[in-house]
Write a structure and sequence with these properties.
mainly alpha, 203 residues, 65% helix, Hypothetical protein af1432, 10 helices
C-alpha cells in the first residue's frame, strides 16, 4: 500500500481533513481488495491515480477530484444497483466527520455520483474525473482485453448470452456518443484507440 499512501495523504491534507485518516485509508484499500472484485480493484484505483497525477494541474479542485477517485468504487456489490450512491454517501459522511467544509464534502459526493456514467458529464472537474475512470476504454489492446475478461469474471453468475447482450449495449452506448472523452487531454490521447477497442468488441 506504500504506493497509494502519498496520494491519500496529499488529498486528505489538501481538502482540510482533520487527523491523518489512516483508519479510513485502511478501510478503503481493504474494500478494493475484496474477493468479488476482478476489475474494480486496487489495480483500477492505481491506474486512476496514475492518470490523475498527469492531469492534476487541470482540476479546479484537485484534492476533491483525487478523493472522489479514492471513493468512486469504494462500495462494490456485484448485484447492487446503488453502489455509486453508497460510495458517494460514505465519502461525504467521512469527510464531514473529519471536519471538511460541507460544500467541499458535497462536491466530492457529486463527483462520485458522476461515475454512474448515466449522462455526459458537465462541470470541468466532473469531466476530468469521468475521463480518468473511462481511460481504460482507450487502453492498449492487451490491457483492454484483460479489462473485458475481468468484468466477465465479476459477472460470472450472469449467463453468457445475457452478459454479451448487456455488455454490448453498455459499450455501444459509449461508442454512440459524439465524444467518449470530454477533456482535450484525454480526447487527444485516447479517443481514437477507445473507438477502435469498442468497435472490435461490439461489431
Amino acid at each position: 500500500m506504500d504506493d497509494f499512501f502519498p496520494s491519500w495523504q496529499r488529498a486528505w491534507a489538501g481538502i482540510g481533513a482533520v487527523g491523518e485518516g489512516d483508519a479510513l485509508f485502511a478501510r478503503l484499500t481493504a474494500a478494493y481488495a475484496e474477493p468479488q472484485r476482478h476489475y474494480h480493484t486496487l489495480q483500477h484505483l492505481g491506474e486512476c491515480l496514475t492518470a490523475f497525477d498527469n492531469v492534476h494541474a487541470h482540476a479546479g479542485h484537485p484534492h476533491e477530484v483525487e478523493l472522489a477517485l479514492w471513493f468512486h468504487d469504494a462500495i462494490y456489490d456485484i448485484k447492487g444497483h446503488d453502489n455509486e450512491e453508497r460510495s458517494a454517501d460514505w465519502a461525504r459522511d467521512a469527510l464531514r466527520d473529519a471536519g471538511v467544509p460541507a460544500a467541499a464534502a458535497q462536491r466530492v459526493h457529486d463527483l462520485v455520483m458522476a461515475t454512474r456514467h448515466t449522462a455526459v458529464p458537465s462541470g470541468h472537474d466532473e469531466q476530468l474525473l469521468v475521463d480518468i475512470d473511462l481511460s481504460i476504454l482507450g487502453a492498449a489492446r492487451v490491457r483492454f482485453d484483460e479489462y473485458e475478461q475481468q468484468i466477465r469474471k465479476e459477472y460470472a453468475y450472469v449467463p453468457g448470452f445475457l452478459f454479451r447482450r448487456k455488455r454490448r449495449e453498455i459499450l455501444k452506448g459509449f461508442l454512440d456518443r459524439p465524444a467518449i472523452y470530454s477533456t482535450p487531454h484525454f480526447h487527444d490521447a485516447l479517443e481514437a484507440r477507445a473507438r477502435d477497442n469498442l468497435r472490435r468488441v461490439t461489431g
